[in-house]
Design a protein that fits this description.
By secondary structure, the chain is α+β, with helices and mostly antiparallel strands. It folds into 2 domains: 38 residues; 38 residues, no CATH class. Helices cover 61% and strands 12% of the residues. It contains 4 helices and 2 strands; from the N terminus they run H-H-E-H-E-H. It has a two-stranded parallel sheet. The radius of gyration is 15 Å and the shape is elongated.
Length: 83
């Protein structure tokens, strides 16, 4: 039986969903005043993201959202450029 593999698009969507979930959790913790727990989570987050996507609009949109959430973002239009 052949193994199923995830497409790059699926992996990107999963990553974005995980980031969005973490950001939502941080926002909720700040809202209820649990700043120490929010800070503890924030300190565990990676601060720099390399975003690779051949679709310029998608790349810019994701980069903007990540930057607004406090991440430093570098972008590339291909794997070759990213390396």
């Amino acid at each position: 039986m052949p193994k199923a593999s995830l497409s790059e698009d699926t992996l990107l969507r999963m990553l974005v969903a995980a980031i969005a979930e973490t950001i939502a959790r941080l926002a909720m913790l700040r809202t209820v005043g649990n700043y120490q727990q929010a800070l503890d989570i924030r300190l565990k987050l990676p601060g720099h993201i390399l975003l690779v996507d051949d679709d310029e609009l998608m790349r810019r949109s994701l980069a903007l959202n990540l930057e607004e959430s406090g991440y430093r973002v570098n972008t590339a239009s291909s794997a070759e450029t990213a390396l």
